[in-house]
Amino acid sequence: MAASNLFTALPGGAKFPLLGLGTWQSEKGKVRAAVETAIECGYRHIDAAYIYSNEKEVGEGIKTKMTDGTIKREDLFVTTKLWLSSHKPDKVEPCCRESMKNLGLDYIDLYLIHWPMSLVDDKGVFPLGDDGMLIGDDSIDYVDVWKSMESLVDKGLVRAIGVCNFNLSQIQRVLDLPPRHPIANLQVECHPLLAQNELIELCKKYGITVTAYSPLGSPERPGIRTPTDPVLMDDKVVLDIAKKRGVSTAQVLIRYQIQRGVVVIPKSVTSSRIQQNFEALNFELSKEEMQALIDLNRNCRLLDFPMSKSLKYYPF
Ligand code: NDP
Ligand code: 1BO
Q1: Catalytic residue among 43, 52, 111, 142
Q2: CATH fold label, 13-219+228-308
Q3: What is the pLDDT of residues 66-92, one digit of tens each?
């Protein structure tokens, strides 16, 4: 049976596909084909970011599939993200416009603040000090960045806005602003070892959709590994469910999010995996299997962006 997309809804009612293709660390020479394969399989949601430095190639993949008639612009949901060195009020719109140009799009479906911290804007996109830590601009408050994001909606450049990597109190501060445009989405690391129950509960209360990043445990994530680091796709509980069902552990991890109503964006540049991951839309985990995955939660964060730990507003 061919898989077909499932959707959640953004606050304004726009359809938001529960499964999307991640593109962080997708090599420039591979990501165009990955996007094309994904769209051919049925994906209608692509997750990009300015800092991934591959938006242009992502855009080429999108363009090919629009030109050959596989999709129309309105069939596709594209997310991208504002980088931290573009948080000043006069830098937000240019960064957004650059992403639009890179992607070849005249609007973005969902534009996210990538992190709550800000970086200085005169030393490149990754300004590192002698201590190897990122150089922040502590004069910028993410609440003001949010206000700049709202003006992008007013101008029609983006359809919805949201945040990534904000903690509970940071989300609450944005919610406490006089109502203008809603927080449409929170994108955070999320998988059975880091279920994010509190954040999801808060988001549910305020109608904010949640996207799970690194849903497969991000095996390519940068940083030093120790032998005790968990390998999510090799977890025994996940393996047992996969074996019993005749699916892959990646499919179990993707399906777990879909059944929680959480949007999920596994990254792959491998055609067979892109297809396989999409087929997670095709089966259902039982109540007992879901409970076994829920019971794995131990607040284990795999990505903590260590070189930003000394910055004001570091969220974790
Ligand atoms: P994932 O958890 O999605 O894991 C991706 C890795 O798993 C790649 O190495 C990929 O290999 C491999 N893989 C994919 N499918 C399968 C499969 N079926 N079987 C075995 N291996 C598989 O990691 P990411 O950290 O990339 O997270 C996903 C996306 O979330 C990112 O790409 C990005 O779009 C977003 N993200 C956002 C962040 C934020 O701060 N907002 C932070 C981190 C991620 P291969 O490609 O070689 O097939
Ligand atoms: C620093 C970028 C993390 C992936 O979104």
Answers
A1: 52
A2: TIM Barrel (3.20.20)
A3: 999 999 999 999 999 999 999 999 999
